[in-house]
What we know:
The chain is an alpha+beta fold. The protein is built from two helices and four strands; from the N terminus they run βαββαβ. Strand 2 and strand 3 form a beta hairpin. The N and C termini lie close together (8 Å). The model has no long low-confidence stretch (mean pLDDT 91). It comes from Streptomyces bluensis.
Amino acid sequence: MRLRVEFTTEPFDLDExxxxxxxxxxxMETADLDxxxxxxxGNTAEGRADTVLSAVDTVLRTALEAGAxxxxxxxxxITAAGEGGR
Length: 86
């Protein structure tokens, strides 16, 4: 199964990315994911279910430890087992 996760950490700082946003970005960029998009108001990543779920666990833990007061996320199945993809 392949998943897509979209997430945002708060509070926002429009002048410079807060520490919680930077650690979340680093987690996603260093995970073995197939696609990662980082934006000022949200981030998206795709990959195998076990890899995405592991990265989400790490994002939640590190972002909260780095000062996030809220993490909003959405996880979608983009292909189920046996439907192709990697």
